[in-house]
Amino acid sequence: MLREEKTVEKKKLSIPVIQKYLFYLILFLAPLSIIPFPWDWTERGIGLLVLFLGTIIITLEIVKLVWEGKLTMLKGTLDGGIMLVFLSLIFSTLFSKDLSSSIWGMDGKLGTGIVAFVCILLVSLSARTFIKTAKEIKLALLAFVVGFSITNILSILSFLGINIWGFIPVYKDLAQDGLPLLRSAKSHLFANFILMLINFGFLSDYIIERTGKNTVLTITIISVILSAINIWIFSINQGIGLIILFILLSIAMWVFGIRRLKIRPVVTKNILFALIGILLGILIPTIVLQIPSLREVIIPDSIKVVAQVSLGSDVSWIIAASVFVSSFARGLFGMGMDTYPISYNLYKPLSQNLLQYNDVNFYYGASELFTQFTNNGLLWLIAWGVLGFLIIKIIRRDLGRVKIYKEEVGNSLMLISLDLLILYIYLGSFFAVYGVLILLLLLVFIGLRCILLDILSKNTEEKFVIKLWTANLRPDGENGKMSYNLNIVLTVFVACVGFGLLLLWGSKFVASAYLLKAESYYVEQNLKYADVEPTIEQRETFVNSMAYYYATAAKFDGNNPLINRKTGSMYLELVGLAAEEYSKNGSDAEGSADLVTSVGKWKNYALDYTRKSIDISGSVYSNWEARAGVYLGLVGMGFNDYASDALYSLEKAAELNPLNYSIYYNEAQIYVVNSDKDNALAALTKALGINAQHIPSIMLAAEVNKQKGNMDVYESYLKAAKKILETNSQTGSEVYQTIVEELNKLSVD
């Protein structure tokens, strides 16, 4: 008997079943797959998860096609719009300013490139073949509810100042208390409003059915409470666009949807009460916390509300418009998928507000609409508009259909819920940035809606069929055996390709682990020596360890420009330490010959890694900045032969970021080393033309004029610097004291 049961269970473990549980796992783990890099908190982690599990799902789908001979997939009204968006992204990638960024995401983030989009799209399409029932759709939604509810718990703890990573050594020093787990308050709010709409659908379903769903009800109530708390605390200073949109769509769901269902008036009234309770429970505390005086009373001083910096709509529009008019190709296809930092650095306006973020790269605009229009051009905007039109069309059609499905009240309610979820995510593109998680939810919800509509219409929806000529699997006769053997060969081939992709994602995961270790070690050592000056031996240990972590990461993900430039910078640090030790001990000291050899080796490593980052992404400013930094460091150590290379790298960096005044200041320093005072002053004029209050540029301009004998100009620069420091309350600085002393000398003379 036991053996029979096991046999039955084995039969149940089919390819569609495996795909289904992997699909649930993606939705559950996606909001939790966080890798806390200081430069990227979410995209790489979620991207790796989606790519790894998605590859398995897609591989299994192709295997099914091979053995079944055909693939039958549901068609959806929105498929045309999605395909148009996909085509616009393909063209944008082909004409990209930086192909690597468009394929893998800027700096190899993995969640924001065309590869991730294709994977998510194929997973959502595959789901139409293995998700068959309304119960399975609800389980998929519930998986996300549970996963994101855990995210909400961790985010609340972070807001309260509790280090949620304290129990993980490699994580604990990278935590920044006060931020949600998704790192971006607006993205976190966006996901929470999506979660709240799902939960409202579950609550309404329970009120209608009233049977056997106590577990789901408990999860839903807990999730609603957690979601409401997160909306209260993380909506501070984030605007009200997403909140208003949520309120309007929630009301629309009841007015145009639930009221049209054939249910008893008392049930309708109960759903209305639940809706009013949710809206008031969100709205009142949120409004209260938006008022600074009340917020100060409610939130203790010990809890710090972290202010996050993002671009405003005005700056985002300037950048988008600048890209659009720059050329015909850029206007049509954009700068390239996930290339927003390139556009930002090229076209950012000269604004006082942006000067303090001189060396900061912004990876997205004020909203998804601004970001993608900049990245993907007019073609994407048209495709996105078509998708919006189709969404409105299907909602109008579905609201008419719910009257027909009188016996399917629960499923009709779910259909309305999915429609409004899709609409909310779409309209949210006007107010917030998507990221890989929101994109995943959008495409998944579109797929689930197709499946549910087919269930409601009794399998009468249109289907898309792919036929394979290897359909005959019966090994009767020579033709059958040949077909059977060919299917085996194809299966092995598909499995090998899938396994190869899994190895690729695995290698990028290992690289991420070494990156994480490097960042954690960096923070740990800085805290350790915050009040104590480390010895040269301790510094050597630190830099060698960092170089090892980064170089090992580069072995596993060698085409990642960020890893390469960080590795190059670390080897430069080793050169600096060796040069310091050489100058301290002298050329006659024991081991000096080995030290010279090591300097040459590390210098070449620094140059090789930074050159590789440029070879991969030559249009990204950060790569040229790192390259220039290596040359500047070498020149500063006495390798003056690299002065011309440093100037060339700085000029290339200036082409990509013309309003970065630090570039021109560094150019001036090189000119000073070359005794080219006129060009040094010309470069400093450019720097001060961008930022007239840049003290290092003013002081260097003063010094160059002093060397040229222009004492009046020298004095005027000193007075200008003194006034700026006094205005900014920096009279206690060493620079200020130096200026006062110099001015006193000049007055005596």
Q: Layout of helices and strands, plus pairs?
A:
Blueprint: H1 2-12, H2 15-29, H3 43-68, E1 70-74, H4 79-94, H5 99-104, H6 114-130, H7 134-159, H8 169-172, H9 185-209, H10 214-234, H11 241-257, H12 265-290, H13 292-298, H14 313-326, H15 328-333, H16 340-347, H17 352-355, H18 368-401, H19 409-428, H20 435-456, E2 463-467, H21 477-528, H22 536-556, H23 561-585, H24 592-616, H25 621-636, H26 643-656, H27 661-673, H28 677-690, H29 695-707, H30 711-727, H31 734-748
Antiparallel strand pairs: 1-2
Please characterize this protein's 3D structure.
The chain has 2 domains: 13-467, no CATH class; 509-748, Alpha Horseshoe (Serine Threonine Protein Phosphatase 5, Tetratricopeptide repeat). It is globular. Helix content is 73%, strand content 1%. Helix 11 runs antiparallel to helix 12. The protein has 749 residues and is mainly alpha-helical. It has helices spanning 2-12, 15-29, 43-68, 79-94, 99-104, 114-130, 134-159, 169-172, 185-209, 214-234, 241-257, 265-290, 292-298, 313-326, 328-333, 340-347, 352-355, 368-401, 409-428, 435-456, 477-528, 536-556, 561-585, 592-616, 621-636, 643-656, 661-673, 677-690, 695-707, 711-727, 734-748; strands at 70-74, 463-467. The model is unreliable at 1-11 (pLDDT under 50). Strands 1-2 form a two-stranded antiparallel sheet.
